[in-house]
Amino acid sequence: MSTTPQMGQLAQQYPSTAPYQQQPYQQQPFGGMGGGISGGIGMTGGSLEQLQQLGQQQPYQQLVQQMAPQQQDQQAQQAEQQMQQQLQQIALAAVQQLAQQVQTQALAAGVATGFIDCVHPLQGQPHQIFLRVNQQFRVLNNPNPQVHQQIQQAFACGHQVIAVWDTQSPSVLRSVRIQRL
């Protein structure tokens, strides 16, 4: 069996790299474009111009075109990661600010000793009940009809009406609780 016909078939399938092999091997300093890179693509020596010419050939152009979307995808992923980090920082800052507000918000309560009921408020004004707690009047704006009636009955029957307010705005009631003894 002869190897000549087989070599001829291989030569037709794979083009020769003869133009690159004709140049003598030149030793370049470590990290240059000599031995390692050129040896990897079948050349014994080469220059930057020859590599650029190779890059312009169709199979290599396809590789370059395939690499471009991957680079864009990587840039998009990096931008998305940066955006997520910024959102996390904003969310953390908002939570910290809210936590500070909640910590500074202290509730106080007291037993009401009397009340003033505005049965018919002026036009455009809210319905209001004023409760006297610790010798100060505190207002409950827009009580629903059930709360309004329960406060009247509690004072009529001698039950305790406990008013709750925020210490930052002590004149406005947050809630009312009625204790029947």
User: How many structural domains in the coordinates?
Assistant: 3
Cα radius of gyration in angstroms: 43 Å
Number of strands: 5
Q: Low-confidence stretches at least 5 residues in length (pLDDT < 50)?
A: 30-44
**Beginning-to-end CA distance, first to last residue:** 115 Å
Structural class: alpha+beta
Query: What share of the residues does DSSP label as strand, in percent?
Result: 15-25%
Mean pLDDT: 75
The main pleated sheet reads as: 5 strands, antiparallel
**CATH class placement of the largest domain:** Mainly Beta
Region (Disordered): 22-42
Biased composition (Gly residues): 31-42
Outline the secondary-structure elements.
Elements lengths: L3 H10 L4 H4 L13 H6 L7 H9 L1 H47 L2 E11 L10 E6 L2 E6 L3 H13 L2 E7 L2 E11 L2
List keywords for this structure.
5 strands, 181 residues, 49% helix, 3 domains, five-stranded antiparallel beta sheet, OB fold (Dihydrolipoamide Acetyltransferase, E2P), alpha+beta, 23% strand
Structure description:
By secondary structure, this protein is α+β, with helices and mostly antiparallel strands. Helices cover 49% and strands 23% of the residues. It has 3 domains: 4-56, no CATH class; 58-104; 107-179, OB fold (Dihydrolipoamide Acetyltransferase, E2P) (Beta Barrel). It has helices spanning 4-13, 18-21, 35-40, 48-56, 58-104, 145-157, and strands at 107-117, 128-133, 136-141, 160-166, 169-179. It has a 5-stranded antiparallel β-sheet with strand order 3-2-1-4-5, covered by helices on one side.
